[in-house]
Amino acid sequence: MEHSADGLMEQMCSSDFVVKMRIKEIKIENGDRKLIGAQKKKKLLKAGPLKRKDTKRLVLHMKSGAGCPCPQLDSLAGSFLVMGRKVDGQLLLMAVYRWDKKNKEMKFAVKFMFSYPCSLYYPFFYGAAEPH
């Protein structure tokens, strides 16, 4: 599935963290879905509030996501571009895309995500006076 670079960059702006990673397994608990990252093979593209201990063993939560029809998670082979927010110590999943190195839009978005004017579009996520 093709995604626009602008759409991906806007999602990156609204996320606390962005990681390219492999997913080891998916667990379902109490109506939530947990994505457990592989120990190795992860690249932190935007750290945000993540601490070293957060990145050691990435566990991403999809609130009420047990019934989510997520076709991109049908197969856990390969890498994923994952975006989320840290809320009350939990890493909440906001978006997940299968990493496609042939997808020009995705490569462009990742390459230029730091030059994208996030604070102009999302001043309520960041301090309005803080440049990001």
TrEMBL record:
Its main location: secreted. Keywords: Disulfide bond, Secreted. CDD domains: NTR_Sfrp1_like. Residues 1-118 form the NTR domain. It is found in: Secreted. One of its GO terms (cellular component) is extracellular region. InterPro entries: Netrin_domain (IPR001134), Netrin_module_non-TIMP (IPR018933), TIMP-like_OB-fold (IPR008993). SUPFAM superfamilies: TIMP-like. This is Secreted frizzled related protein 5. It comes from Phyllostomus discolor.
